[in-house]
Amino acid sequence: MSSTSNRRILLVDDLPAIHADFRKILATPDETDDLDALHAGLFGEVQSAPTEGFEIDSAYQGDEAAIMVEQAYGSGRPYALAFVDMRMPPGPDGLETIELLWQRDGAVQIVICTAYTDHSWREVLERLDCGDRLLILKKPFDSIEVYQLANALCAKWNVARKLTLHLELLEATVQERTADLQTEVQVRRKAETALRLRNQAMESAVNAIVITTFGHQDALIEYVNPAFERITGYAAGEAIGRDMRFLQRDDRDQVGLQDLREALLAQRDGHAVLRNYRKDGSQFWNELYIAPVSNDDGKVGHYVGVMNDITVARENQRQLEHQANYDILTDLPNRALLQDRMAQAISHAQRVREHFAVLWIDLDRFKYVNDTYGHAVGDALLKDVSNRIKAALRGSDTVARVGGDEFVAMAVGLTSPLDADAIGHQLLAAISLPFVSGDQELQVGASIGVSIYPEDGESAEILLKHADTAMYNVKERGRNDVQFHTLAMSESVRQRATLENDLRLALGRSEFRLDYQPKIQVNTGRMRGVEALLRWDHPEHGLVSPARFVPLAEDTGQIVAIGEWVLRTACAQTQAWHAAGYPDLTVSVNVSACQFRQPELVDTIADILAQTGLEARYLDLELTEGVIMQDRDDVIETLRSLKKIGVTLSLDDFGTGYSSLSYLKRFPIDFVKIDQSFIHDITTNPSDASLTKAIITMAHSLGLKAIAEGVETDGQLGFLAKHRCDEVQGYLFSRPVSSTIIDAVLCGSFVLPSSDLPDHCHLHTVLLVDDEPNVIAGLLRVLRHCGYRILTAHNGAEGLDLLARNEVDVIVSDQNMPGMSGVEFLRLAKDIYPESVRMLLSGNVDLPIAIAAVNEGAITRLLRKSYDEGNLGEFIEQAILRKERGDDSERPAAPSRKDVQGSVECGKSSEESS
Ligand SMILES: Nc1nc2c(ncn2[C@@H]2O[C@@H]3COP(=O)(O)O[C@H]4[C@@H](O)[C@H](n5cnc6c(=O)[nH]c(N)nc65)O[C@@H]4COP(=O)(O)O[C@H]3[C@H]2O)c(=O)[nH]1
Q: Which residue windows are transmembrane per the record (predicted)?
């Protein structure tokens, strides 16, 4: 029997003898024979003495038994079986006892011991739902039967107990597993809920969400949410499988796209605002954020895009910006935008050197209209006025509303600042036109103050202030007028107006005449032709300069009639000279831009030539760069037509505009006239000198002839001749003179001043410059027999003049001369004639100055005044030889100061030189 087996038995009977019997019977079967003895010995003394095999307790009443069963159950050692007597007076009978026992321990098995055959209690037992917990033992007992019964019931109890324990264990395991499963289910449910939430969020998001594949070429759509469908108009089925770019059109060069491409390339987030199109073709602004989505292997497999239709937001933004910059009533720019535009106009005008005008317009009588007819009429009038101002200006101009009845107009690109006056009067005329409101006809005027950039200020603020002040002046003077901020400007405006009027009458009154300026061929010194220059003999002001009235005539268009008169007169005069026996003479006539634009120009010229009888080749038309450089097909066409009729063409004032010589190849030009502003300083300004040389060289390389105008000195002429300029024109020969004087020149009774044209001999030329005549005399003596052509000058200015007219190989200059020092003179000589050899002669060299001049290459050799006669000739000869070899670097070893008295070879370090 296992030690864990339960073999506890409770005997419940009111008779102690029965207890003894049971104890005896339940002893081990082998000892059954001794049962009686054993029973006798023990009976009544030890009620609960252990019986081997069974553990037996005794109770003599039902309630006592109930207590014992309860205790045993509570201690964890319950009874397996109880033998219960049926009648146990005075306590509960057997059935009641059974009920009591089962109330304490439902598992205890009961054997009822009874001697009665009356089975009326069976019903009670059935009520108790006994199952197999109850057995009936009929008295008198058979010992073996009782023992076996006890044994079997204990074994059954133990099996049942084991089963129960096993079941409990099983139940615990099941419970544990169930708990685990419940946790797992909960976690999974949570995840599912989160996923469902995310899906719902994507589905119900306001922003469109797109998931695409990620590839080098394509971004194929795999998912779109309902917001995508709503924004684009494409159903999911229509979008899925297509490339994301299908929302774009031909404008695939949008700025934002580049950012996205870069983001995709780098596999990072990106953002762009794109112009996209809905299914119905309408455009929308798509603010798109894209982000890479990695696969489990960490590689980017997808991209998620969040799109937002910001069309409305952008439009709102635009409207806000518009409201910040525009006046609500008139939709004109407000003061803030005006100032912005003015700042732009200032930087543009600075760059292209032009003027612009600021016109401050204040309406006269507006307050009266507003007060009398009400604000609605006042507002309508303001709108009307703003439209009229706009219409009176050019598209590039700006008009702004800066106050209740105040406007500012900015007129840009003015040829002359005075044009602002005409603009102001145009505005006055437009504003003062009647304004109809219902059956009322109203009229307002304006006071306009004008300031000009840059004359009246270089900032928007100052220009506005000055225009405002000028407007107040107009108000004080009686309104409805235009006034400039600068009084002088107002005065010029008045004068200009008068002049304009007079000019209109001048042609009819024969106040014009032509003067002619000779044009001289440099290689022959002969007058090849003349330039016709217009003169206006004003009855009051006397001779008015063409520089003053020609632009005015151009502005008013009168130049067309005047120009025709010039052409006719010049051609007739030249034809007269031809007839008088000077058949080669040519005449140049200026043609203005306005004239050139006339479609009938070519025909007019052909007619004039035909009518005057002058052969076309003797007429030369001078056109400025501004006319020619427009590079428009019609310009080139007109030039070709003119060439076709046989006239020659000159490009006037060359160098002052923006044209380049190489650009000239496109035009059928014959002559380039170098502007006199370059000629003026040609002998003293290195950049003018090199520019002039370049123009001549390039003109020749293009097969054109170069003419220099404004030649006033022999020096200028010499320079031009030396550099092979073809023709010259200027006061050196003659001012523009009347045709009578030209007659006299032609017939030889008047001789043009002879020019000192250069001697093109091949002797090497040495220029000696010293203010001391005896030093010059000494040098001449030394060089007398060397075979040089020797030029002498007493100062730097004379030296430069001679240099301009002569090809000089070697310059020997004193340092201490009045006006210009030797170093200063040689520095200029170096800049203009870098090929010359330059020697400085000084008794008392100022070393720092001389060293600086040596280092910068202005001086090639430094000579002491105590020169050795023989050596000076030798130095010059060596220098000429090196120059002819073009060998600057390989100079012969420099004679030391000791070797050659007073001579220092330059090109060495300053220490050596000194
Ligand atoms: N300082 C100086 N000036 C010299 C010298 N040699 C000539 N000039 C002046 O230089 C100007 C040369 O004419 P432009 O460049 O065509 O410039 C001309 C031309 O653009 C215009 N012009 C003259 N006559 C006519 C004409 O009949 N029609 C047109 N459209 N314009 C004309 O008026 C401008 C001025 O004419 P002018 O006052 O006659 O001024 C002339 C002439 O008198 C000189 O050695 N030194």
A: none
| Residue after which a domain boundary falls, among 436, 458, 485 | 485
pLDDT at 4 over 70: no
> Do 31 and 132 fall into the same domain?
yes
CB burial class (10 A; 0-12, 13-18, 19+) of residue 870?
exposed
pLDDT attached to residue 906? 37
CA-nearest residue for atom 41, ligand 1, is 533
ipTM, 2 dp? 0.96
| pLDDT at residue 6 greater than cutoff 80 | yes
Is the domain of 561 the same as that of 673?
Answer: yes
Nearest-10 crossing angle of helices 419-431, 487-506: 90
Q: Give the list of residues 6+ apart from residue 501 with CB closer than 8 angstroms, or none.
A: none
The response to whether residue 590 sits with its C-beta less than 6 Å from ligand 1 reads yes
Residue 84: half-sphere exposure toward Cβ, Cα within 13 Å: 32
Counting from 1 in the atom list of ligand 1, the atom nearest the Cα of 729 is 6
Residue 469's contacts (CB-CB under 8 Å, 6 or more residues apart) are 449, 485
Beta strand 512-521 with 445-453 is unpaired
Predicted pLDDT of residue 733 = 87
CATH code for the domain in which residue 814 is found: 3.40.50.2300
Could you say which of 285, 316, 347 is where a domain stops? 316
Domains contained in the chain, number: 5
Q: What is the pLDDT of residue 60?
A: 95
Question: DSSP string of 188-226?
Answer: HHHHHHHHHHHHHHHHH-SSEEEEEE--SS--BEEEE-H
pLDDT at 681: 92
Q: Residue 236's domain spans which residues?
A: 205-316
* Both structure tokens of 276: 């996209």
Q: Is the pLDDT of residue 230 over 90?
A: yes
Label the pairing between strands 789-793 and 81-85. unpaired
Amino acid at 147: Y
Per residue in 397-456, pLDDT (tens digit) is: 999 999 999 999 999 988 888 789 889 999 999 999 999 888 888 889 999 999 999 989
Question: Do both 293 and 348 map to the same domain?
Answer: no
In a domain, 378, yes or no: yes
Pocket test for ligand 1, best of 503, 549, 566, 590 (most atoms within 8 A of CB): 590
- Is residue 497 assigned to a domain? no
Residue nearest to atom 15 of ligand 1 (CA): 653
**Binning pLDDT at 50, 70 and 90, where does residue 748 land?**
low
Q: Counting every residue, how long is the chain?
A: 914
Question: Can you say whether residue 902 is alpha, beta or left, with left for phi > 0 and alpha for psi between -120 and 50 degrees?
Answer: left
- Per-residue pLDDT at 899 exceeds 70: no
